[in-house]
Amino acid sequence: MLFKTITKENLRTFITNIIKENQTFAPVVVSTDADNNPIYQFKKVDSFEEIKINYTKSYSSIKNFFLPYKEDLSTFHFNENGWEQKINYRVNPRVLFGVRACDINALIKLDQVLMKGSFPHPYYIARRKNTFIIGLDHEPMADCFCQSLDTNEVVHGFDIFLTDIGPKYFMLINSSKAFNLLKNITIEEVKEEDRENYIKEKNRLASLFKSHVDVTGMANLMDIEFESSVWQKWGDKCLSCGSCAMVCPTCYCYTVCEKINLSLKTASKEKMLYSCNLIDFAEVAGGHNFRPKSSDRLKYRYYHQHRGFVESFDESKCVGCNRCQKACPADINPVEVLRDLRKENIK
Amino acid sequence: MTYKIPVYDINNEHSLSQTPNFNNKNALMKTDMVYQCEITNIVELTESEKLFQLKIINPIEAKIFSFLPGQFVMVEVPGFGEIPVSISGSTSRRGSVALCIRKVGKVTGILHKLKKGTMLGIRGPFGTHFPMKQMKGSNILLIAGGLGIAPLRAPIYWINEHRSDFENVHILYGVKTPEQILFDFQFDSWRKIYNYDIHVIVENSDKSWQGKTGLITDLFKDISIDVKNTYAIVCGPPAMFKFVCDYLNKQGLAMNQMFISLERRMHCGMGKCCRCMVGSTFTCVDGPVMDFWTVMNLKEAI
Amino acid sequence: MEFSGIPLKKLRAAFFDFTSCEGCQLQILNHEKNLPDFLSLIEIVNFREISSDKRDDYEIAFIEGAVSRKDQIDRLKDIRKKAKLVVSLGTCACYGGVNAIKNNFSIESMVDEVYKENKPETIPVQKISEIISVDLEIPGCPVSKIELEYIILCLALGSVIEKKKYPVCIECKQNMNHCFIDKGSLCFGAITRAGCDSICVNGGLPCYGCRGPSASVNWMSLKNILIDKGITEEEILEKLSLFNSLNEVIKDEN
User: How many CB pairs under 8 A join B and C?
Assistant: First the structure.
């Protein structure tokens, strides 16, 4: 990794030029919530001015750039002799600007499952390797608890990462692609005062976290508290609507659906991101449902986050972005659920 | 000066142009590409179960495809969907796959309408297998409930082909009604040629039924088990294998000498879609075959 | 005819309208680019909006609209006798729809309010399944043409028709919409069956549940959420009864 600085003016020129030559997605305002706070989403931008550089966090995560909500796994073409299967992995390069540290760490978790483990997923790899990621540090919101999950700092998984240190940005350069692009613009060596300002800023950001949860030993606690009434309590609130999994930066589970084109000449095999909170998630042939109750399904979601994923990769699947609560009509707060399990909420 | 992000074309990856080999899990391959198969034979076993014989068409794919007893394939009916089915045939017949399929849903409903000669797709094999080599020199207890006999046919063929490797072989088979009994046309040959001890019991008998009536556990009275030198392979509904394995465990059969095949609805077979997860375990990758100790340590297995 | 080894049957279909806006019938004629293929899968023998042909040899009868007059009952029973398969098409046919709002008033006061003279004979609104047995229900105000195409294809191929069990929220989040409830507004997407691709929310309107309840409804929780947002119980119940499609979700409440 290289460490450099870039002035705000040069960054503007750099991003402006990137936007001109590449499909670029960045945070923009799309709505406002009940308390009049802006709601942001990553959308395609045509100029630097459209970008809300001081945004808080996007309502949906950036995962759908890598795991689209719907994606054709293959198509079947029917002929007199039967059929032929076709697969297309082609993805055009694009740029994501303004990605948060927790979201980059979420991608690293997805990399574990979809790129590095058994049966690497070509669709994901094609998207991952064609997406240029420019990250951006930010002041945590009151509900951000990524610090508790150690995902508020980035080490890899991005191309460029920027931290605002006053007149300029402190810049982490993490790919040769990034290094080559930056040759087009003036960047500066890190000076003594930049290092000081960077560390000061990092300390300031770290001190701003208000939401914390202790996840140590959570994997075993999930097993020990499997029959806990906590699941019933939260399950009673849960609408089993699956919103949490849709906005979650690391939920990757899916369902597969095949559709025959009305012409009867082709059919598509479509993958659609699903949610373990949905009623038929664990239904098997013949209709038996292994998780018929909403509390079973809610529990399973936490179980996968803090037990299943830990068993495979030694870390929680959750990055602490708290998008799930924001998107949850029932306002289910993962921090409160985990605290309930730790019996921290009992006075 | 260019600000253009270079293209990464995954199609240039050499391994992606190769025929997928699902036994080579860590390779980058076209994980969604099926092997085309022709239905070469269909045997109507009962009103709701048919045995399909498939032949992999491409000789390279037929050569690559090799499985072990207990593994499953994803069966693709283009346009209708893909379902997991455990292989119920011999491991030694290269390029040939036998599948016993019950009509229960959309895809199986269509499968039951298909005729000989139709093209299907398969991906696989996936999942764990019964450790047949580890069982060498032992008595084998094969216990099936209902459609659970289908996955047991693969280890049965294995035993037949390596009969001298095994001591006494018992099959205990329980079904709800006599007309649901599967593969009884093979029982005679298994008894006579391979010296199997086969016991069948039905839960609800009718006038035509000459055999025993009751639950599968009632059959234990009819056999004696040398717990020190026996492996059990159990396949059936969760309530059934729990009863059976608890009983055998009480008799002294170690939990890691009993192997179970779990049933879940996989959508990918590759540990990606999470649909078959039991607690923290993927049935498609860490299962479907597991020993009883592992199953009992899984939350929500039963 | 055959499709990949599966027999394909071209079905003789009739479309009948009862009390409705006829919007669902118009939907059938939408998605023009697929119309030739659509029409190659069914033979339309009776469809007042598009043809003067009126044959009675149909296998499938699609019923649009609800029942609101006595004479409609006999007509419906006659259709049932002739059709092998009766399909309720649209929210009015499946649940009564917007028409059913009239059931909240006495027939007399309602007729007086709407008609000054030439007062018609009318009865309380009933959904089709209250009068005859229905084999298949395709709700939606209007029905989704894409869903209808899928169902016609399933019928032609003799394949199982799979209904989505999950609620509209999934489609809504996949369309990257901001949740109406987070905006502090009422929305029934969380308890309504998906399949519409959250078309109302995409267009800026909340979901009022025209497609009926999803397979997992937690009404008590949703009601509490809406009350917490400051929405009155009266308003919740009023909106809930808009299409007469979600009535069953409040059954357990008392």
Answer: 25
pLDDT tens digits, one per residue of A311-334: 999 999 999 999 999 999 999 999
Domains, chain B, with CATH or none: 10-126 (2.40.30.10), 139-296 (3.40.50.80)
* A84 in contact with C, Cβ within 8 Å: no
Q: Over its length of 302 residues, how does chain B's per-residue pLDDT go in tens digits? A: 789 999 999 999 999 999 999 999 999 999 999 999 999 999 999 999 999 999 999 999 999 999 999 999 999 999 999 999 999 999 998 899 999 999 999 999 999 999 999 999 999 999 999 999 999 999 999 999 999 999 999 999 999 999 999 999 999 999 999 999 999 999 999 999 999 999 999 999 888 899 999 999 999 988 988 999 999 999 998 889 889 999 999 999 999 999 999 988 899 999 999 999 887 789 999 999 999 999 998 887 77
Establish if C162 belongs to a structural domain.
Answer: no
Specify if C145 maps to a domain.
yes
Q: Which domain holds residue A63?
A: 2-67+87-207
Does residue C224 lie within any of the structural domains?
A: yes
- Tell whether A224 and A286 lie within a shared domain: yes
Total structural domains within chain C: 2
Over residues A198-207, the pLDDT tens digits come to 999 999 999 9
In sequence order, the β-bridge partners of residue B122 are: B35, B75
Contacts of C3 in chain B (CB under 8 A): 79
Q: Which residue on chain C is closest to A272 by alpha carbon?
A: C174
For residues C96-125, average pLDDT: 91
Q: Are C184 and A34 within 8 A, CB to CB?
A: yes
| C182–A34 CB contact, under 8 Å | yes
Kindly determine whether residue C160 and residue B109, on different chains, have CB atoms separated by under 8 Å.
yes
Are residue A189 and residue A230 in the same domain, yes or no?
no
Is residue A79 in some structural domain? Answer: no
The B residues from 1 to 30 touching A (CB cutoff 8 Å) are 1-11, 16, 25-30
For residue C244, give its domain range.
Answer: 168-253
C223: left (phi over 0), alpha (psi -120 to 50) or beta: alpha
Q: Secondary structure of chain B in the HEC alphabet?
A: CCCCCCCCCHHHCHHHHCCCCCCCCCCCCCCCCCEEEEEEEEEECCCCEEEEEEEECCHHHHHHCCCCCCCEEEEEECCCEEEEEEECCCCCCCCEEEEEEECCCHHHHHHCCCCCCCEEEEEEEECCCCCCCCCCCCEEEEEEEHHHHHHHHHHHHHHHHCHHHCCCEEEEEEECCHHHCCCHHHHHHHHHCCCEEEEEEECCCCCCCCCEECCHHHHHHHCCCCHHHEEEEEECCHHHHHHHHHHHHHHCCCHHHEEEECCCCCCCCCCCCCCCEECCEECCCCCCEEEHHHHHCCCCCC
The Cα of A237 is separated from the nearest Cα of chain C by a number of Å equal to: 5
User: Does residue A178 sit in the same domain as residue A244?
Assistant: no
Q: Assign C52 a pLDDT band (cuts: 50, 70, 90).
A: confident
Cβ neighbourhood burial of C57 (10 Å; 0-12, 13-18, 19+):
exposed
| One domain, residues A241 and A200 | no
Please list every residue in chain A whose beta carbon sits closer than 8 Å to the beta carbon of residue B5.
22, 93-95, 130, 132, 177, 181
* Residue ranges with strand state E in chain A: 2-7, 23-32, 38-44, 70-79, 82-86, 94-99, 131-136, 160-164, 168-173, 188-189, 254-260, 266-273
Chain B neighbours (≥3 Cβ pairs under 8 A) are A, C
Give this complex's ipTM.
0.94
Total structural domains in chain A? 2
A44 touches chain C (CB under 8 A): no
In chain A, what residues touch B2 (CB-CB under 8 Å)? 21, 184
